[in-house]
Amino acid sequence: MQHESYELWALYHDQKVLGLVSTRLYTDLVRGTHLYIDDLVTDANTRSQGIGAVLLKHAEELAQKHGCEILRLCCVIENEAGMRFYRREGWKERAFALVKKIIP
After folding, report:
1. Structurally, how many domains does the chain consist of?
2. Does some domain include residue 93?
3. Partners of residue 34 on adjacent β-strands
4. Is residue 76 a contact partner of residue 99, using CB atoms and an 8 Å limit?
5. What are the DSSP E strand ranges found in the chain?
6. Alpha carbon distance 36, 93 (integer Å)
7. Is residue 104 part of a domain?
8. Cα-atom radius of gyration of the chain, to the nearest Å?
9. What average pLDDT score do residues 79-97 get?
10. Residue 51 three-state SS
11. DSSP state, residue 46
């Protein structure tokens, strides 16, 4: 990841990665500078054990450290379990992300 503010954080247990969160500072005209979560991934064998919540909390602390008032991420519509998780963690739907595939 070439963006200068990109960071990848991992949560380990016994030298095994249980989950990852990647973040970067992002600035746009609507929200100003905020922390964006590119990826939040947990090991399928250890889901529902609080690992995702710990990683989200870490991202929130990073946002506060950088003086950001907003933390953002995108979750695909079909990821129903992910959407339930984010709602439980206090996240709200605020926009729709649109995608258009460009075929060369």
Report:
1. 1
2. no
3. 26
4. no
5. 7-13, 16-28, 32-42, 71-73
6. 15
7. no
8. 15
9. 92
10. helix
11. G
Q: Which domain holds residue 58?
A: 7-88
Q: Report the alpha-carbon distance of residue 1 to residue 15 in Å, rounded.
A: 24
| Residue at 84 is within a domain | yes
The enclosing domain of 17 has a CATH number of 3.40.630.30
Q: Measured on CA atoms in the order 56, 62, 68, 72, is the torsion positive or negative? A: negative
Look at strands 16-28 and 7-13 and give their pairing: antiparallel
Model confidence over 29-54: pLDDT tens digits?
988 999 999 999 999 888 889 999 99
Where do we find the tokens 């247990």?
13
Rounded Cα gap, residues 32 and 28, in angstroms: 5
pTM: 0.86
pLDDT of residue 98: 86
Question: In the structure, what pLDDT confidence band is assigned to residue 5 with cuts at 50, 70 and 90?
Answer: confident
- Residue 53 located in a structural domain: yes
